[in-house]
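Service request form, structural biology core

Requester: graduate student, group of Dr. S.
Request type: structure prediction, single chain
Budget code: on file
Notes: please return the result as structure tokens.

Sequence provided:
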Amino acid sequence: YLPESVAKLLQDVFSEMRSKKFSAVVPITVITSIWSASRGFHAITEGLNSVFGASETRNIVSIRIGSVIYTVFFLLALVATLFLWTFGSFILDAASEFLRFSFIASVLRWVLGFALLTGIFWFIYIFVPNRRTKALRELPGAIICATGWIGFSFLFSFYFDNFSNYDYIYGSLTAVVLLMLWVYFCMYILLASAEINWFISRKIG
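Core staff response, request fulfilled:
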């Protein structure tokens, strides 16, 4: 779930990257984008270290390499999740005549999407902070984070598609502004869920 203008922006970007016209610049664009995004992921690493009270002992080279690797993993997994939901919508539209199959496909799409998001955040909570932990201790936070992302994205999309006047304020920049807002709040949910998970693990012991 994303606002219509944001979804169209992402669709246009992917379409341009697939076109032959942009085939020569795609590798450079991808590398530059990943490197820039890895700086953001480095900030997430510092935030998670702060949440879990972990001291950073890794050298800057290994941190940056790790940030790039985690960024690639995160982007691929996120694209796979978005593709799953989008592809699932096409299946539902094509199978609208078969109510039972349509219902099963809808449930399966959400279950797989939720499971994939939970796996992404579970991986992040286990491996990104500079600490040792038990995998099962991080599962509650991953589930909370996945639930928060889906719930927030739905409400975010619903509000800006139906009640917002951002189009009149930002004009052609509306999609970019909304995308930045969505990313900001989703990262906040990621850190807030880590805080909740830390509290739960402390209570359980």
